[in-house]
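Reply to dn_fold:

You asked what the input looked like. This is it:
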Amino acid sequence: MKDWIEGFQDSIDFIEKNLSNELNIEDIAREAVLSPFYYQRIFGAMCGMTVGEYIRVRRMTLAAQELACSDCKVIDVAMKYGYDSPDSFAKAFKSFHGITPSQAKESGANLRSFAPLHIKITLEGGTMLDYKIVEKAPFTVVGIKKRFSAETSYKEVPEFWGEWMSDMKGLKGMFGICTDMDGKTFDYWIADLYKPWEDIPKSCKTYQISGGLWAIFRCKGALPESMQKVNTQIWSEWLPSLRGYALAGNYSLEFYLPPTKNPDDTVSYICIPLKKV
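and this is what came back:
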């Protein structure tokens, strides 16, 4: 656990050292020895915000301190923290602090501050996760996909499901699959198992999932709450204590059983590809 936590803290320290420089998710994730996609999912689960949001609030905190404590010009501070124009900087600054950059230079101005994160795992009582590690052969799915930003996907992916439910396009919606993750964007599929003897529904495509080891986590309860709860436990509790395996693959998968009469009896699964180390 110590090495994993230290690696993640190293990535946050890297962000702090480079807040006045250009930051990209590939370099940040490399500090934690994780893929950009997995890094962002873990960061969100552990820290309660996206990497981009953290960078923005830290930059706004430092920008306010500089404006309040020095004679620096607003435009210089804006450029230092990555804003191309005073207008875009002023808009972001007011959204965070509630006042303009010029007002921040006045004596007695009320400013907000967001302190740097420090990762520490504290055990406050055991929590139970039902999971198993199994080896699966390759399989093919058929479905519809849409490209999403990692920054906004938590809001937009449920909307994608809502669009699909209004016109199910011949699919049952067995799977939700994240693929082709480049750190900033990824494809999300709503899909079923592909059966070669059946016609491919209109607007659908096929995609092959590689064979290998999978950690499969059981979620029971109304959706999406039950799955979100288990997802947070995976990244914030299970992964830091994982031994003998590492994350693998450029995808992750959700598996949904048919709905039940009582939402609290609904069963679904989160599937994470692994490799032995």
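The longest helix spans residues 51-69.
Hope that clears it up.
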